[in-house]
Amino acid sequence: MAGAISESIAPLRVGAGTEIAAAFPADGTEPDTAVRFALMERLHRHYTSYLAGAESFLTVPRLGGDPLTAATEDAWLRWEDRQVDPAGLPESAEGLADWFAALRSRHVQPAFCRYLADEATIEEIALFFLAEELVDSRFDDLVALAQIGSTGTSKLTMAENYWDEMGEGKLEQMHTRLFEHSARYMRGRLELGGVDISGLGGTEVYENANLVLMYGVHRHLTPRLLAAMGLMEYTAPVRFQAMVDGCSRLAVPDDVIHYQRIHVHVDADHGAEWLENVLIPLAHHSPEVLREIGMGALTRERVANAYYERVWRQMRALR
Q1: What domains, with CATH codes, occur in the chain?
Q2: How far is CA 287 from CA 90, 99, 257, in A?
Q3: Residue 4 has pLDDT above 60, yes or no
Q4: What angle do CA 182, 311, 128 make, to 5 degrees?
Q5: Could you report the per-residue pLDDT of 217-234, keeping only the tens digit for each?
Q6: Fewer CB atoms inside 10 A, N or C side of the chain?
Q7: Are 192 and 128 in contact (CB under 8 A)?
Q8: Name one Pfam family in it (predicted).
Q9: Which of 241-263 are b and which e, b meaning 16 or more Cβ less than 10 Å from the residue's Cβ?
Q10: What angle do CA 67, 73, 75 make, to 5 degrees?
Q11: What distance, in Å, lies between the first and last C-alpha atoms of the chain?
Q12: Quick one: average pLDDT of 288-301?
């Protein structure tokens, strides 16, 4: 267990506190994006290592064992919480459905989706697809983590979602496999076009992936995870349809866009069921849980909006 033990006793290195303060300033100043990017890359390595398969047991880190990781997470959570306007949080469990519907309406990225469907080149679509890889390639693990501790209809709803992710028991239809097939094609199109993707993983891209990974691996953040995933499921069909339309316009083979095509309808069902059977019943437990649901959804909205803006700039820079 050398790898795990070495991380569990690692001290907070000299200067780390200054870097964290620069990346997540408490005084309202702009974050140091270079430092923040380095910390986000490190967080992503930590989360993906933690979610590794059983064969990697020697290198799986222990949660809370690395002081720098813990300090980064704490500072990031506090920073994100300061970005949320408390007046925008849901006021009651009874009003959560309407609150969530309004959030969905403003988060579907209509201009970006129109661009994907009608204007984007194949290289631009490929670039966006590979940016999505940091989240989509681990979504089944997130659904698995979300189910822990749930009961009744809530657990069945998430289990049905997970069963869909598993291709309803068909190995070749597992969503991660379908995604990998599409990713190989898209990566090849970028190579053919001479597009360098080494700079794709900007700070916003990693934050978009890290947010749900952080929510997923820490049990006390589960209400935020459920809210963030509910928003993801509820808004994804619009973007998946835009991807299908854009890829069809560019004569991308049907087998490559099968992943996107099935999610247009699957995620629409999942989003509605997740809200009705998971989030609304959970919100009735206490005002504190309701607040956590609101914080998770609004933080996901802010982080994802910044992500789409960053990726769209990178896409258009290819022209």
Answers
A1: 2-83 (no CATH), 91-316 (1.20.910.10)
A2: 10, 15, 42
A3: no
A4: 10
A5: 999 999 999 999 999 988
A6: C
A7: no
A8: Haem_oxygenas_2
A9: bbbbbbbeeeebeeebbebbbbb
A10: 100
A11: 49
A12: 97
